[in-house]
Design goal:
This protein is mostly beta strands. The chain has a domain at 28-92. Helix content is 0%, strand content 54%. It is built from no helices and ten strands. It is globular, with a radius of gyration of 15 Å.
């Protein structure tokens, strides 16, 4: 049987690392973002953000509209994290930032939006 690796596997050095996802259209101003963590080697090493920007802004102008810290070490049972999103513009993307060395394997959930 061939197992398929789902999600993102991020290996961060001691100096930290930032990984960004692709831009998606926002489905409203407010909503809920989330991720499922299958493996995390270091408690509180990673934070997941949702960034937003208008289509006429450059990527550097994006700002966070919600975040969650991956707080627990996970090695056997997946853990789900969710967080509120507020004041989204046209486009949104996930961003993972590490503050120290660690490995995380996670899968992002499609954001759920409250209709305007």
């Amino acid at each position: 049987m061939d197992l398929t690796l789902l999600g993102e596997n991020i290996n961060a050095p001691a100096t930290g690392k930032t990984v960004t996802g692709y831009w998606m259209p926002a489905g409203g101003n407010d909503g809920v973002g989330g991720c499922e963590v299958f493996y995390n080697s270091s408690a509180s090493a990673f934070t997941v953000y949702m960034d937003t920007k208008s289509s006429d802004e450059i990527d550097a102008d994006a700002g966070p509209i919600g975040s969650v810290a991956i707080s627990s070490v996970t090695t056997t049972t997946p853990v789900t994290y969710k967080f509120d999103l507020a004041n989204a513009k046209e486009l949104v993307r996930y961003r993972v930032v590490s503050s120290k060395a660690g490995v995380v394997h996670l899968q992002f959930a499609q954001p759920l939006w409250q209709p305007n």
